[in-house]
């Protein structure tokens, strides 16, 4: 068996024509839909980037035990399980978080891997004395850090070296992916993962993709929205959105190159193709940009999924409830490998049915949906909740846990899924490096809410229905128990 897995980052489901989007032409996503099973109720698990990938690889929800961090020694990563069965897995990615402290154990699970440099704040080019004043003049002041260059600096330097379309990291990712297919399409038992950071911010695409969305903006470069409430002038907001539309158009074009390759080499008959994303992105909906700061609205958590299985080539819409943790078990199923007993997800190729799914950020609300209602339950006080990280790999995104954090650590008994491994139980404090970035201190919305997606698909008016809330409350508890959530997770939500 042969499989290609395409993973985009921050791809909005509601922008794609096959999901009802009309703002951007997406002919190649729509073309893929005609060849695939299109999943209409597919949801995230743990967020943001690396927690989502840990879910994808392991088939387990992780947000109730851990924030952003590496794969743990007891985790079951599907590429490694395939490797043990003689299936060659190859990762091509420009997602630079894999090479930071908080993601450093992921890419090693693949048999081989390629890393394309230059996305976002990737510390790529060694420009020791940049011409900061000249660079600052090119960018909107909101994107220069205001003072000493911060996370925006590496992007401004990287962009100096991305001059032609072929230089763009996502373009290179797909080129390397096609190169793998040239070398290996006649072989058997392989999985190719083409993973690009696009359309994640900053929204930088070749000029020809921006042309259809020109806003008349004549100010400095404005392609990187802040995480938080919309405070920009209308023309700035329009420019930010236009740049997102351009980069989604680039992603559609690159997907089209892959589909053309499948057509040219008649790969549809013997190769599975799965396309999805880690999460969505707010572009002003609910008066917010991005993620991490707000309630987990549908635009963030309801994501696209396409599966072409050559053994079941019929296309169609799949209405049952599915989740990111089902993707890893699906790859195992494709290659006839049994999922480990610790796996929570189920193969998407089997007619499994879920009553509900839970999802969330570590330290934030626990959220549940049954496909019609969404319920978002917050702790009474996000800043004073009793919460711990469970890990034997104590690193944040770009640095280890601090000695101050670890000084309060104790040893916790194994969970049901840690293969008899006890864990460090590290208390979360306001001085933790993650607290105000992607932890409890980052959230700007903190109110428990219930929505009925049938009558309120935009989640504009919270529903007051104590009986329904109680029902969702019970679904949440049952799923948390199935996940072997720590005791304090129930306590902090008053469950």
Automatic annotation (TrEMBL):
GO terms for molecular function: metal ion binding; sulfuric ester hydrolase activity. Keywords: Hydrolase, Metal-binding, Plasmid. Pfam families: Sulfatase. The keyword Ligase does not apply. It comes from the Bacteria. Transmembrane segments: none annotated. InterPro entries: Alkaline_phosphatase_core_sf, Sulfatase_N. The keyword Cell membrane does not apply. It comes from Rhizobium gallicum bv. gallicum R602sp. This is Sulfatase protein. One of its GO terms (cellular component) is cytoplasm. Residues 3-337 form the Sulfatase N-terminal domain.
């Amino acid at each position: 068996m042969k499989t290609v897995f395409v993973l985009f980052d921050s791809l909005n489901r509601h922008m794609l024509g096959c999901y009802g989007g009309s703002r951007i032409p997406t002919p190649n996503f729509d073309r893929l839909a005609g060849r695939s099973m299109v999943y209409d109720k597919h949801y995230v698990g743990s967020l943001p980037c690396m927690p989502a990938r840990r879910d994808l690889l392991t088939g387990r929800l992780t947000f109730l035990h851990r924030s952003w961090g590496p794969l743990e020694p007891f985790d079951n990563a599907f590429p490694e399980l395939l490797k043990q069965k003689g299936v060659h897995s190859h990762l091509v990615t420009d997602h630079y978080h894999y090479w930071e402290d908080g993601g450093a154990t992921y890419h090693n699970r693949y048999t081989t891997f390629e890393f394309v440099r230059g996305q976002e704040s990737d510390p790529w080019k060694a420009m020791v004395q940049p011409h900061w004043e000249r660079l600052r003049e090119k960018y909107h002041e909101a994107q220069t850090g205001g003072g000493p260059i911060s996370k925006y600096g590496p992007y401004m330097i990287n962009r100096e070296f991305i001059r032609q379309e072929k230089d763009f990291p996502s373009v290179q990712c797909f080129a390397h992916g096609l190169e793998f297919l040239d070398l290996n399409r006649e072989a058997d038992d392989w999985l190719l993962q083409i993973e690009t950071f696009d359309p994640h911010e900053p929204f930088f695409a070749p000029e020809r993709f921006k042309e259809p969305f020109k806003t008349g903006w004549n100010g400095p470069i404005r392609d990187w929205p802040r995480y938080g409430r919309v405070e920009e002038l209308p023309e700035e907001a329009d420019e930010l959105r236009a740049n997102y539309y351009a980069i989604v158009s680039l992603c559609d074009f690159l997907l089209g190159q892959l589909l053309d390759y499948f057509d040219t080499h008649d790969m549809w008959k013997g190769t599975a193709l799965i396309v999805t994303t880690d999460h969505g992105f707010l572009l002003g909906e609910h008066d917010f940009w991005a993620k991490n700061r707000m309630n987990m609205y549908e635009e963030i958590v309801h994501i696209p999924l396409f599966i072409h299985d050559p053994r079941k080539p019929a296309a169609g819409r799949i209405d049952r409830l599915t989740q990111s943790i089902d993707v890893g078990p699906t790859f195992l199923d494709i290659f006839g490998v049994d999922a480990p007993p610790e796996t929570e997800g189920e193969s998407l190729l089997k007619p499994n049915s879920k009553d509900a799914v839970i999802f969330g950020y570590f330290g934030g609300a626990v959220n549940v949906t049954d496909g019609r209602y969404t319920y978002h339950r917050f702790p009474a006080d996000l800043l004073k909740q009793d919460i711990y990280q469970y890990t034997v790999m104590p690193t944040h995104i770009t640095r280890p846990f601090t000695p101050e954090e670890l000084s309060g650590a104790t040893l916790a008994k194994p969970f049901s899924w840690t293969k008899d491994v006890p864990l460090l139980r590290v208390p979360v404090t306001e001085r933790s490096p993650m607290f105000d970035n992607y932890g409890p201190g980052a959230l700007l919305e903190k109110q428990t809410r219930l929505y009925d997606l049938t009558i309120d698909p935009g989640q504009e008016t919270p529903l007051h229905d104590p009986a329904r809330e109680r029902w969702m409350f019970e679904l949440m508890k049952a799923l948390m128990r199935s996940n072997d959530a720590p005791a304090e997770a129930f306590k902090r939500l008053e469950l």
